[in-house]
């Protein structure tokens, strides 16, 4: 939007992931004409951040999330807002509301199902009518899984019923902010209808979740698949319902890949106990005090050793394909790149045909995947499509 002061404004830039995102945007925009700013309530902290960044650095905008008029005034001056301000269920809605009011595209890194459902149900129709894109889950939740499932399904016969399983492996540490967001995600979890498409999006096929169960992984993978109760399957299924390239019908299952069965069983039990404690208000309050402080994160050396991979096993029409999406530190370095590239894609790439509350695949498509590949994330076919058995 050339009539606005900025192409991109980044909220939450002084937080742990926000600083990494700001550094990524500074590197990517150095020597270009893209106009961007960092926004928050502390001018002192924003100025300190800007001084650390390479190049000319971003402009600085001071605004408080409680100032609805200030948020509207700022979002009206930019084409795209990217935000790392969470937990989103408690802090995220004012920015979404301001973007809808001012016709501004939006991207975040939430993994909170309740927030995703709220954005879709409360703001999706208005965003569709305004022709803007509200793109949630532009981080490790759920970009590798959403784009990876799309990449996998595209390798299989399109006149067949397709089934894809995603197996997630990570070697990484997570910060206090992620722990608090996980707590909010479980506490505010909403189910039912999470696979619905955006207003105006076509319903191209029937989609469903593969029934969750612990199982021995197939297709050459070593270990056990443990169902992951994250937002990712809902995001994948929303994309599969609305976009071409997912076959005649589509089913998806999402799992952690764990090497040993006792570890898998312990993981299921631990997740159940965490969920039970998070749902009850007294224990949830206690957990908030026990978790690491938000804003803390792993050191650069730890992040440099961190890795992730998501291996997809796709079946359809008697054929099987195995693909993999992989990269570095999932929760921070890669998430910062994912959000930064999502914001740049919204600002610079050709618009998709969709508007409203969208998934990354719906809003950003293959051009976004190419951006991520250019930044080091790998999308590869491990076993080309071939007859099963």
Describe this entry's structure for a reader:
This protein has two domains: 6-139 and 333-373, Rossmann fold (3-Layer(aba) Sandwich), CATH 3.40.50.720; 143-329 and 378-387, Dihydrodipicolinate Reductase, domain 2, CATH 3.30.360. It is α/β, with parallel strands linked by helices. The protein has helices at 16-29, 43-52, 68-75, 88-91, 93-102, 113-130, 143-153, 176-187, 232-242, 261-279, 281-290, 300-304, 333-348, 360-374, and strands spanning 6-11, 36-40, 59-62, 78-83, 105-108, 133-135, 161-171, 206-209, 215-216, 224-227, 249-258, 307-316, 319-327, 356-358, 378-387. The strands form two sheets. Strands 7, 8, 9, 10, 11, 12, 13 and 15 form an eight-stranded mixed sheet that branches. The mean pLDDT is 89. Helix content is 42%, strand content 23%. Helix 5 (93-102) packs parallel to helix 6 (113-130), helix 7 crosses helix 14 (360-374) and helix 8 (176-187) crosses helix 10 (261-279). It contains 14 helices and 15 strands.
Biggest sheet architecture? 8 strands, mixed
H/E element order: EHEHEHEHHEHEHEHEEEHEHHHEEHEHE
Detail the poorly predicted runs: none
- Give me the count of strands: 15
CATH topology heading of the largest domain: Dihydrodipicolinate Reductase, domain 2
- Gyration radius (Cα, Å) is 20 Å
Task: Quickly list its features.
389 residues; alpha/beta; Rossmann fold; Dihydrodipicolinate Reductase, domain 2; 8-stranded mixed sheet; 7-stranded parallel sheet; 14 helices; 23% strand
């Amino acid at each position: 939007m050339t009539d606005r002061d900025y192409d991109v404004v980044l909220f939450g830039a002084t937080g742990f992931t926000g600083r990494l995102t700001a550094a990524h945007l500074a590197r990517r925009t150095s020597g270009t004409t893209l106009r961007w700013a960092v926004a928050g309530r502390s001018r002192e902290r924003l100025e300190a951040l800007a001084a650390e960044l390479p190049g000319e650095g971003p402009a600085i905008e001071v605004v408080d999330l409680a100032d609805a008029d200030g948020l509207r005034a700022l979002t009206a001056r930019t084409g795209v807002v990217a935000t790392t301000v969470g937990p989103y269920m408690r802090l995220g809605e004012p920015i979404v509301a301001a973007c809808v009011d001012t016709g501004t595209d939006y991207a975040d890194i939430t993994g909170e199902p309740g927030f995703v459902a709220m954005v879709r149900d409360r703001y999706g129709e208005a965003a569709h009518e305004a022709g803007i894109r509200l793109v949630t889950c532009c981080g490790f939740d759920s970009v590798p899984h959403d784009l990876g499932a799309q990449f996998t399904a595209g390798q299989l016969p399109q006149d067949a019923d397709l089934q894809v399983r995603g197996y997630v492996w990570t070697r990484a540490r997570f910060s206090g902010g992620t722990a608090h967001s996980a707590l909010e995600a479980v506490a505010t979890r909403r189910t039912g209808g999470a696979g619905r498409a955006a207003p105006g999006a076509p319903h191209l096929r029937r989609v469903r979740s593969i029934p969750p169960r612990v199982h021995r992984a197939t297709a050459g993978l070593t270990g056990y698949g443990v169902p992951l109760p994250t937002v990712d399957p809902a995001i994948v299924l929303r994309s599969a319902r609305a976009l071409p390239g997912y076959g005649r019908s589509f089913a998806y299952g999402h799992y952690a890949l764990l090497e040993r069965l006792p570890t898998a069983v312990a993981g299921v039990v631990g997740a159940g106990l965490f969920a039970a404690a998070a749902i009850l208000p007294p224990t949830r309050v206690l957990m908030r005090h026990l978790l690491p402080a938000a804003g803390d994160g792993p050191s650069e050396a730890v992040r440099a050793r961190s890795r992730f991979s998501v291996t997809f096993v796709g079946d359809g029409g008697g054929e099987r394909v195995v693909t993999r999406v992989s990269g570095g530190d999932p929760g921070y370095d890669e998430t910062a790149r994912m959000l930064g590239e999502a914001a740049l894609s919204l600002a610079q790439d050709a618009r998709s045909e969709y508007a409203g509350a969208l998934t990354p695949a719906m809003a950003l498509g293959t051009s976004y995947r190419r951006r991520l590949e250019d930044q080091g994330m790998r999308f590869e076919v491990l076993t080309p499509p071939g007859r099963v058995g």
